[in-house]
Design brief:
The protein contains 19 helices and 13 strands. The chain has 574 residues and is of the alpha/beta class. The chain has 2 domains: 31-337, Purple Acid Phosphatase, chain A, domain 2 (4-Layer Sandwich), CATH 3.60.21.10; 339-571, no CATH class.
Length: 574
C-alpha cells in the first residue's frame, strides 16, 4: 500500500511539474513580428532636381510627397530596428516594395538585396506580396514571374501552395501561424484591385486547410479589406477590394482574424464583426517612406494581439548627402535633429503642390476662349487665393472674412493650406483626434464659407455684371455690385446661410468619421483578443449588437443635425 501511494505521489509530482512547465510555456509563448508597407523604393539620384521653383526650402519635394531619394536609407533604418529587436521573429511587407517597379527593374533588385542581407545577418525571415507599383502582366517590363523570381527567398522558397499566373502563396510563419499572401492586384489596371470569386474562394480554402493543420491563418494583401475612410468604396474605390463587406463576412467566418494591408498610405485599424460573432481586423499600414515614416510591431499570443506604432526618427544623413548632392544645409540640419519633423514638412509641401497643381486651368482641361473659361478661372483663382493668403494680419483671411460676417478663430497656422495639409497628415498618421468644434475644422469650414461668399460674388461681378460694373467705375464706384450685395446680406443675415447650415448638418457625421477615430479600435497602439478567444457563442447577441450600432449611428446623425440647426436658429433671423 505504501509502495502504491509512493508511486501515486511520484506521478503526481511529475505531472505537476510538467503541467507547471506547460502553463509557463503557454503564458510566455508569443510571436513578435514587424509590418511595413509601401516602401516605394527609388534609386537615389546623384543630384536633387527642382520640382517646386517657388518653394524656399523644399523645392525638391514631389507631388506624391514621397521621400524618394531618402527611401533606401529609411528602409535600412527599418531593417536595423528589426534586427536589433531580439524578440522580432520575422517581417511582413504587404506590397509596393518599389516605386516604379513595373518598369524600373533595378529598384526591385536593390530592395531584394537589402532584404537578403537582413536575412543572412539576422536569421530572421521576410515575407512579401506584390502591390500595384510592383509588377503587371502583358506589356510590363517586370511581370508576375519576375516578381516571384526576384523575391523568391522572401516567402516563395517556403511556400506550401502557390497560384500560377499570380504572386499568391501560402507559407508557415512558425508552428502556430500560417500566412496567406494574396495577390490582390488587377493584372491590367495600375491601381484597382483584382479581387475575384476565385481569389476569395482560394483564401477560404487555405484558411480551412490551415485549421486542419493546426495553424491560425493570417492574411496579407495590398488592397484594403475594410473602410479606412468614410465610405471608402465611393471616395477612394481603387484602394479597397470590391464587395468588401461580404468578403469580410466570409473571411471572418473562416476564422481569419488578422489582415495586413497597405495601398491607402494611412495608419488605420478597422474591425468587422460577422453575423456569427467573429471579428476580423484590417491593419492598413502607412507608407514607410512617407510621413509619418512609421511601421507596426505586433506581439501575438492565443489570448491577445498587442500592437504598437514604431517610427523612423533618424537615418544615416551623412551617407545620404554623400550619395545625393544639393541638399540645403537647413534641410540637412533638420534631418539630423529629427527626421520625422523633416518628413512631415516635406509631406505638407508635397500635398499642397499636388492639390494646387490640380486646380490649374491646364489640369482642369478648359482653355482660354472656351465656354465658361472666365467663370471657372474666377472661381479657381478665388479658391487658391484664399488658400494661399495669410490667415492673420492686415489683409489676411481673418480680416477679409469679417467683411462677410464670418469669424476665423485665432491659431498658430499660417494659412489655410497649413490647416488642410495638417488634416491630411493626421489621416496618414492615424488615431485622428479632431472634432467639429476644434480649431482646425472650424477654420477649414469657415474658409469654405468665405470662398462661397467671395467666389460667387466675384464670378457674378466678373461675368454676369461685368458691363454694369465697368459703367459704375466711370462714376467712381469701385466695389462690384454682387460683392456689395453679398456683404450687405451677410451683415444683416449672418455669415452662413440656412441652406449651408443644413448641408453641414447632413455631412457632419461623414466629416467626423474622417477627422476622428471612433470605431473602437485604436489605429496605432492597442490590445485585441487573440485567435484563441472565440467570438460570440450566440449569433443573436451579435445581431442585437449590430442593430444597436445602426441605431447609435442614426442617433449620431440626428444629434448633429439638431445641434447645427439649433446653432443656425440662434444666429439666423427667423
Amino acid at each position: 500500500m505504501k509502495r502504491f501511494l509512493s508511486v501515486i505521489l511520484s506521478l503526481a509530482l511529475i505531472l505537476s511539474c510538467v503541467t507547471v512547465g506547460f502553463s509557463v510555456f503557454a503564458q510566455d509563448a508569443s510571436t513578435k513580428f514587424a509590418v511595413a508597407s509601401d516602401l516605394h523604393y527609388v534609386v537615389p539620384r546623384e543630384e536633387l532636381e527642382v520640382n517646386i521653383p517657388d518653394e524656399p526650402l523644399f523645392w525638391f519635394a514631389n507631388r506624391r510627397a514621397q521621400l524618394e531619394n531618402e527611401s533606401g536609407f529609411i528602409i535600412d533604418e527599418f531593417l536595423r530596428q528589426c534586427a536589433e529587436d531580439e524578440d522580432c521573429d520575422f517581417v511582413l511587407i504587404p506590397g509596393d516594395l518599389a516605386n516604379d517597379g513595373r518598369i524600373e527593374v533595378q529598384q526591385h533588385l536593390d530592395v531584394a538585396e537589402k532584404l537578403r542581407k537582413f536575412e543572412q545577418e539576422t536569421g530572421k525571415s521576410v515575407y512579401v506580396i506584390n502591390g500595384n507599383h510592383d509588377n503587371g502582366a502583358a506589356d510590363i517590363d517586370f511581370k508576375y514571374s519576375d516578381f516571384v523570381t526576384t523575391y523568391y527567398e522572401f516567402g516563395y522558397d517556403e511556400a506550401i501552395v502557390t497560384v500560377e499566373g499570380t504572386c499568391s502563396y501560402v507559407a508557415d510563419l512558425n508552428d502556430e501561424y500560417r500566412l496567406i499572401a494574396l495577390d490582390s492586384c488587377d493584372p491590367t489596371k495600375s491601381t484597382e484591385d483584382g479581387m475575384s470569386t476565385d481569389k476569395v474562394n482560394w483564401v477560404l480554402e487555405q484558411a480551412e486547410k490551415a485549421y486542419e493543420d493546426g495553424k491560425y491563418p493570417i492574411l496579407m494583401m495590398h488592397h484594403n479589406l475594410l473602410d479606412h475612410l468614410p465610405v471608402q468604396r465611393i471616395l477612394s474605390r481603387n484602394f479597397i477590394i470590391r464587395n468588401h463587406l461580404s468578403t469580410a463576412e466570409k473571411f471572418a467566418n473562416a476564422g481569419i482574424k488578422l489582415v495586413f494591408t497597405g495601398h491607402e498610405h494611412c495608419s488605420d485599424a478597422a474591425v468587422y464583426t460577422s453575423t456569427k460573432g467573429n471579428k476580423i481586423y484590417d491593419f492598413a499600414t502607412t507608407s514607410l517612406t512617407m510621413a509619418p515614416t512609421s511601421f507596426r510591431m505586433f506581439t501575438v499570443t492565443d489570448e491577445e494581439v498587442k500592437y504598437e506604432e514604431k517610427y523612423i526618427e533618424s537615418i544615416d544623413v551623412d551617407a545620404l548627402t554623400s550619395a545625393v548632392s544639393g541638399y540645403p544645409q537647413e534641410a540637412v540640419d533638420m534631418m539630423k535633429e529629427d527626421f520625422s519633423v523633416y518628413a512631415k514638412k516635406f509631406l505638407k509641401v508635397g500635398v499642397e503642390f499636388r492639390l494646387a497643381k490640380g486646380m490649374r486651368m491646364e489640369e482642369i482641361g478648359i482653355e482660354e476662349g472656351q465656354p465658361f473659361y472666365n467663370l471657372v478661372y474666377t472661381a479657381v483663382t478665388g479658391l487658391t487665393d484664399v488658400l494661399e493668403m495669410p490667415l492673420y494680419g492686415e489683409g489676411g483671411i481673418q480680416e477679409m472674412a469679417a467683411e462677410y460676417n464670418i469669424e476665423i478663430p485665432d491659431s498658430d497656422y499660417y494659412n489655410c493650406w497649413d490647416v488642410a495639409t495638417q488634416l491630411v497628415f493626421a489621416h496618414y498618421a492615424g488615431s485622428e483626434d479632431y472634432d467639429l468644434e476644434g480649431t482646425e475644422v472650424t477654420i477649414f469650414l469657415r474658409a469654405v464659407a468665405l470662398v462661397l461668399r467671395s467666389d460667387l460674388a466675384a464670378i457674378a461681378d466678373n461675368t454676369l455684371l461685368s458691363a454694369a460694373n465697368m459703367l459704375l467705375e466711370t462714376f467712381g464706384y469701385e466695389d462690384g455690385i454682387a460683392d456689395s450685395i453679398t456683404k450687405f446680406a451677410t451683415d444683416k443675415l449672418g455669415g452662413v446661410s440656412t441652406v449651408e447650415y443644413f448641408l453641414l448638418a447632413l455631412i457632419s457625421p461623414l466629416l467626423l468619421e474622417f477627422i476622428a477615430d471612433d470605431d473602437g479600435v485604436d489605429d496605432n497602439n492597442g490590445t485585441l483578443p487573440g485567435y484563441g478567444v472565440s467570438g460570440s457563442d450566440v449569433a443573436m447577441n451579435n445581431f442585437a449588437e449590430k442593430i444597436k450600432n445602426i441605431f447609435d449611428t442614426v442617433i449620431m446623425y440626428i444629434t448633429y443635425i439638431i445641434k447645427i440647426l439649433t446653432r443656425a436658429a440662434e444666429v439666423l433671423p427667423l
